[in-house]
Amino acid sequence: MSDTEALLQVEKLSAGYGRSRVLFDLSLVAQRRGAVAVLGRNGVGKSTLLKTLAGEIRPMSGVIRFDGAEAQDEPAERRARRGLGHVPQEQAVFAKLSVRENLLLGAIGQKDKNDIDDVLDFFPKLAQRLGQTAGTLSGGERKMLAIGRALLGRPRLLLLDEPTEGVWVGVIDEIAERLRRLASEMSLILVEQHIELALDVAHYAYVMDRGQVALEGAASDVRRDPRLLKYLSP
Ligand SMILES: Nc1ncnc2c1ncn2[C@@H]1O[C@H](COP(=O)(O)OP(=O)(O)OP(=O)(O)O)[C@@H](O)[C@H]1O
Ligand SMILES: [Mg+2]
Question: Counting atoms of ligand 1 from 1, which one is nearest the CA of 50?
Answer without folding.
Answer: 18
